[in-house]
Amino acid sequence: MRVKRRKDLEELKGRLVYLKRVFLLVCLVLLAKAFHLQVVKGDYYRERAKEISIRQYQVRPPRGRIFDRNGVPLAINKPSFNLYLVPGYLSKGDVPRFLDSCTRYLGLRIEEVREKLSEGRGNPWQPILLKRDLSQRRLALVEEEPWLFPGTMVVAEGKRYYPHGSLACHVLGYVGEVNKDELRHGDYYPGDMVGRAGIEKEYEGLLRGIPGWEQWEVDALGRKRRLVDAAKAIPGNDIYLTLDIRLQQKAHELLKGKSGAIVALDPKTGDVLAMASSPGYDPNSFVEGISPKDWEALSHDPRHPLQNRCIQGLYPAGSVFKIVVALAGLETHKVKPSDKVFCTGCYYFKGRVYHDWKKGGHGEVDLYKAIVESCDVYFYQLGHKLGVDTIHKYGTLLGLGNKTGIDLPGEKGGLLPSTEWKKRALGQIWFPGETLSLAIGQGYLQVTPLQLALMLSRVVNGGLKIRPHLLLKVAEGKKTDPPRREKVKRLPFERWNLAFLKRALEGVVEDPHGTGRAARIPGIKIGGKTGTAQVVALQDEEKDKLPPNWREHAWFVAFAPVDDPKIVVSVLVEHGGHGGSAAAPLAKEIIKTYFQEKGYEGQSVK
Question: What does the buried/exposed string (b/e) look like for 273-285 if buried means 16 or more CB atoms within 10 Å of the residue's CB?
Fold first, then answer.
């Protein structure tokens, strides 16, 4: 018995020694691990702990505002409370409740939220914009019931707002959220807004500003507790445009219910005083993200409301192009103002009859009368004398056939044909009969309303080669270079030829037989030129049977006052018919508004 008890005691002692050794080994392992964590890896884990408790967030800069030339705001920023998600604070168990809360209380689609969550997998601590511009009710819910929206935070930021709605929408453009490609290749963060069209896109670099950042101490749920450090965001530059809001408003009103465009320029500087295209759209609808349904409706609207007709609409110039042909004839001495032809209402050329717009003709016509009454027969003959390449040369000098270089994206250059162009583009020779069509602004010729405004400006300003532009200045106090202005050159035109053209264009409006009499304003001498551009070639007796979208486009270009031009206006009314009746009255109202605003010192403006 004693022997057994002694054996048991020895066995227990052996086990105790074994346990002591195991305990000592465990202690040594723990000490080694603690040494590794605190000494060897101490710096690493201290930084990791700091990262968990300290978070750095981007601070978006206020986007630069846009004003008209008189300081009237065209694009500003309104306060907006935006909801952000930090995916790293959202556990897998929270996801179902989170998705349900987003759809039930925020009106978001589950697919949309899932896509946001997938975006955060690469960097779970990068805040992702979940919902812009929370309403007061939703903001209160998020603040009072944080358990419904784990891992989220509310940030007060600026929201783009266009106080005048669709007014000047094609000039201003709109902003939209950055896409994946821009995030990969640009200096942007998720949720940033960038210019998508118009001035917003053209001057994105000036308007966007420089982001700042804030470092916050956060709790386990990601809620901000204490601001540790910060770098202020630098706001974008405020810019002033050459637009005059009152002229822009008038142009907008005149085009209501029509498809067309109105451009007003300062012929000496190239300042764009008004640029209206109709129909338009409300750029505010793009700020929060336009719905697929609304985008489908806009982009497939047969009236093309997203198109800026002033710089993207291409049309035959009609009789407005006779200004170019007349100048080419005078400069090349192919015609003198006193040279006369007899217009019977038609012109026979190589077995074909080319009709004048006036049945029975204009009788005996010199160049002055040909411009005032827009005699086609006179210009058929003059065009034949000049040839297409001479017409092309002078049209190019006046700004046709190429982009004007205006500071807007998406401008089209139009088409000013030549023998070389037709051979290159169509593989065909140029036929003399095509020159006759070109001489009255038809055929292959394609122009924009802005190009015709530029063309007339270069004629009436004494041949100055101005370039149209919209940026007037950058707000004072901003560290940026002012917009560069090219040195204005003078085109190689004889001044007496330009003076003759101005007098003839004055006759278009002021002469009793002028085609633009509807543009007359008592007290202001106005010059101009009407144009009626065919969409399809038909005989006169067939025109009344045409559907509306096949009818002629109505043109009128004008300048005032004749002695010292301060404004040039180009008006296009799509399928409006005759320029003298459909477009000239609109130009009259623009000019009247301009001089009423300026307090014209001539006779009273009625």
Answer: bbbbbbbbbebbb
* 253's tokens: 């009103």
Q: Residue 279 corresponds to which tokens in the numbers above?
A: 């129909």
Q: How far apart are CA 62 and CA 156, in angstroms?
A: 11
* Mean pLDDT, the chain, whole residue set: 87
| Distance, C-alpha 207 to centroid of its chain | 14
Q: What is the DSSP string of 91-109?
A: -GGGHHHHHHHHHHHS---
| Number of residues written out for the chain | 606
How is residue 265 written in tokens?
């320029």
Tell me which residue of 592, 587, 563 sits closest to 502, measured CA to CA. Answer: 563
pLDDT average, residue stretch 448-463: 97
pLDDT exceeds 50 at position 368:
yes
Per-residue burial over 18-49, b if 16 or more Cβ lie within 10 Å, else e, is eeeeeeeeeeeeeeeeeeeeeeeeeeeeeeee
DSSP code for 199: H
Does residue 376 contact residue 354 with C-beta atoms inside 8 Å?
A: yes
**Considering the entire predicted model, what is its pTM?**
0.86
Question: Letter for the amino acid at 231?
Answer: A
pLDDT higher than 50, residue 603: no
What's the CA gap between 123 and 64, in Å, rounded? Answer: 30
On the 0-12 / 13-18 / 19+ scale of CB atoms within 10 A, 592 is buried
Q: Write the CB contacts of 386 (distance below 8 Å, at least 6 apart in sequence).
A: 325, 328, 329, 332, 334, 435, 439
Q: Which one, of 325, 321, 377, 323, lies nearest residue 349 by Cα?
A: 377
Q: For residue 325, how many C-alpha atoms fall within 13 Å in the half-sphere facing its CB?
A: 33
pLDDT at residue 145 in the model = 82
Q: Among all residues, which ones are annotated catalytic?
A: 319
Rounded to 10°, the helix 110-119/95-105 angle is 130
Q: What is the DSSP letter of 202?
A: H
The answer to whether 69 and 242 are in contact (CB under 8 A) is: yes
Asked if 447 contacts 553 with a C-beta cutoff of 8 angstroms, the reply is no
DSSP code, position 40: I
Q: Reduced to 3 states, what is the DSSP secondary structure of residue 443?
A: coil
Q: Write the single-letter amino acid at 15.
A: R
Q: How far from 569 is each of 210, 512, 547, CA to CA, in Å?
A: 39, 22, 29
Separation between Cα atoms, residue 119 and residue 128, nearest integer Å: 8
Residue pair 580/565 in contact (Cβ under 8 Å)? The answer is no
38: DSSP letter: I
